[in-house]
Amino acid sequence: MATFHEQVKGWHEGERAIHTLLKVPTSSRENPTNVGLSWSHGDRVSASPLVAIGTVDEQGRPWTSIWGGERNFAQQISHDRLAMASLVDKCHDPVVKSLGLDRLADGEVGQTSGDKAISALSIDLESRDRVKLAGKVVVGALVGRPNDEAVSQVQLAFQVEESLGNCPKYLNKKVIWAHLPSPQLVSSSLPLPEEAISLLAKADLFFLSSTNGQTMDTNHRGGPPGFMRVISNTDPSPGGDNCAVLIYPEYSGNRLYQTLGNLHTNPRIGLAIPDFDTSDVLYLTGTTELLVGDTAAAYLPHTKLAVKITVRSAIFVKDGLPFRGTPGEFSPYNPPLRKLTTEAPAPLSASKPTATATLVGKTSLSPTVSRFTFSLAFNNPKEKRLWNPGQHITLDFGGELDNGWAHMKNSDPQSLNDDYVRTFTISNSPPSNAEQEIKFEITARIHGPVTGFLWGYHISPRAARLEIPVLGFGGEENFRLIGTGKEKQKVFVAGGVGITPFLGQVHEIAATDHEVKLIWSLRADDLPFARDVLGRNEGIKQVKVRLFLTGGCGESGKVEIAKIKGLEGVKVEMRRLTKKDVQGDWFDKERKKYFLCAGVGMMKVLRGWLEGEEVVSESFEY
User: Fold this and answer.
1) Of 297, 466, 483, 559, which one's alpha carbon is 20 to 30 angstroms from that of 241?
2) Coil, strand or helix: which one is 413?
């Protein structure tokens, strides 16, 4: 039989299963978890103003709570032993209840038999330092406050059997201060109340506890606000099935997979989601399902690993935590927010490449915008399917840019969770003759590793050809200007490279007598880009164009402007776009339909201006 030291330094069955499933060699090395609590780890715990703490209730359900509010509320008092003293919500805190402390008389000390498993995570959000702890409860007590029936001080002695310092990834900085709570129970049933849904939409950090039946683990998950998504939250079925289902992405970590190993053995989980602004808290317990590869991406695009949670019980408490926090800088390791496929149109793509795109041309259009031309060859010519005008293409640059797993990479933190799959709007129409060589163009601004790679790639007869796997085409049919009804006057409003869906439809527009107007807001630095677009595409001649230029331009810019002004149907304005321009009197107020493509900031402004109008939009957030 393995000794306790061997158990701590080894891997349990669930952890080994996850290592095998995810094809990582972690099981071949020693578990870095420490036996007991070193004095250096004890000092880090004392310096942390918060401790997330987890245990299981009488039904075996894990719960998590968060205690503290100021430094030194938890201190190492002897070898491998911690003492904690924190204000708590004695009526609704699920960990207080699961430890049986709520049943004690005021000040009564409750001793355990030494087998009540407990886990914790001390965390300092100013320095992004954290230490994981696991062990047993020694003694605990609740000490009441005068004239306060809702809040008591919990006093707990914790025998630490395992400890592990963790990295600072995905922790968004916050300054924490102590707060006297006034707990009010909002809901203790499902579905989740509106306040809980609002909290999930803003939360950038939560704590989770799990157990394999012998020991427990408490850890954090962090990311951009709202990275935990709500799959469903409806009334329970008559049969009693739970209605709240959540999902979060598992970002690249240290590959120990201690939490996932526990969940593989025992799928139960307990979460605490704090609101640092208001001290509100959402406590959840439920069951999990691990999603890998295409199964994860079916819910969250660009996600290789995710955890789906079916909530079995929930408690939402207003002002229930003994701390608040002021937000600081976000973690540079946070990936972009990934919304559910049901929330936002996802690029239509296959799990395996359907074609190969070969870079055959590159044209610089401005200091930051270039046009890239690719030839396209389908893997199976019998399954050849071209794009529709205005659609986008999904390309996999992983073979060129993915350097494999790394624990930390401060020089390029975003690369750790980047699959290098990118979607670009195709800025030309498909060939009219199916026998023609198939070429497509993407017009993009340099931004990030993929466009930076394309920008720097040198096309030469002597160089190896750049071949990129194609995962498919996509795009909403309702974003096509032609086919939405000739009776409507179409107004396309573009910001910068948001012109690209329009370019893909220019030839289609030219072949009709549809009434189309273009409003294009652009930086003056991109004047050569504007001249190329407006002068290169014959179909634009029958479109009324208003070009709004922002920023100063030199003598060369003035020459470019003069050339653009000489183009048929183009009016140039040297100022910012205004609400009056978008709603201007050059439109038929009764028949117009707006098509918007711009960055997030401009899109928000445009939607505000056009409230009540018929609007369809496409963003850059593929």
Assistant:
1) 297
2) helix
